[in-house]
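USER: Please consider what follows.
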Amino acid sequence: MEVSNVQGHMAIGMFPSFPGLVQGEITKLMRHPLTWVAGLLSLCGLVGVNLLILLTDIGNDARSPLKDPVGFWTNQFEGLMFVRVCGGLFLIMITAYLIGMEYHFGTIRVVLGRGVGKLQLLFAKLTALLIMALGMLVISVLVYALGSVVNALILAGNLNSLSALKGENWKFASYFLSSALISHVVTIIMAAAMAVLGRSLAFGMTAALCWFAVDNMATIMLYLVASFTHNDIFLKIQTYLLGPDLNALVSAWAGQEHVRLAMFTPIVNGSYSSTQFLLVIAGYTVALLAIAVFFMARRDVKE
């Protein structure tokens, strides 16, 4: 009787907990070279963006922090869009790896055999990826901010230009950070859905990387078709594409007359609000999450 009770307590203690699964997934990512290589490449991309901004500002008095401090920092804030772009590429790679490698190496059968549920495993991975995304966002912003400060010091010799910024300028910068956070969440779910759908590391990474490339290039194709046919329906279709809507969020929040602050955005007038873009993004997020959950739960992984 005592032996039975001890075994029962051991079984309960050995049952995998959700926090333990999340910690294990984070450990997998932190120990894999892909995470560090992709992360460093992402941060190097942000350093490169700051360097390009510096090179274009040198010798340009109109954009000097001494003569036009607000214009200089607004230009720097606009560069924050690359926090979303570089971070997105990083998240696509680690998401496709974390989920796709379970199918690629067949380790998912071992994990499920230890009593972990399919959806429990999926949501543990998604939670770990969201934590990584938040950490990467913080690091990326710090790296980019440091580069912006260095640019100001090189061009002006001091940081007095920061005193010219008002609340609306910092609010403008916050739009980019909010857009990056939303984009990171959607990117993780999209890459996860592709990896689960294809049950392959290669398929998941390829499909996820191609998604936004095709999505963004479609704006140009639809614009050309609309120009040739003189039919606005093709312009309206652009507003239902995930990538272009993510690109358009900042300019929609900022109240631009034309949503063209970033490349590959829907070419529409200001009648399209950020709420409409957010609804489309939310629709994609729910649909992609449903795909990941459905195929993860329904498919047999024991073959």
User: Anything to note?
Assistant: The two ends are 39 Å apart (CA to CA). The CA atoms of residues 43 and 139 lie 8 Å apart. Residues 1-13, 257-261 have pLDDT under 50 and may be disordered.
